[in-house]
Amino acid sequence: MGDSYDNALAETINGLYKAEVIHRQSWQSREAVELATLAWVDWFNHRRLLEPIGNVPPAEAEAAYYRQLNEPAMPA
After folding, report:
1. Residue 35 belongs to some domain of the structure
2. Does residue 76 sit within a domain?
């Protein structure tokens, strides 16, 4: 079950998407919007540098996180 933080995050991302993609031009077709959306989502997850996580893309940070979870623990 979601909480208010989930809703706030969803609204923030939706607003960012609309500002950066939808409202920047007049769209000729639904297909054009779909292709622009796919390109934006790809950029947002794989190329956007996010300062709070070390200026790396979110997908790269997530992959590093799961790699370290799978590494064997070092003996003390």
Report:
1. yes
2. no
Residue 55 pLDDT exceeds 70: yes
How does DSSP classify residue 73?
Answer: P
| Contact in structure between 40 and 17 (CB atoms under 8 Å) | yes
pLDDT per position as a tens digit, 26-39 = 999 999 999 999 99
**pTM of the prediction?**
0.75
Q: Which two tokens stand for residue 65?
A: 């996180």
Secondary structure of 6-62 as H, E, C letters: HHHHHHHHHHHHHHHCHHHCCCCCHHHHHHHHHHHHHHHHHCCCEHHHCCECHHHHH
d(CA 63, CA 4): 27
Q: Which residues span the domain enclosing 30?
A: 4-70
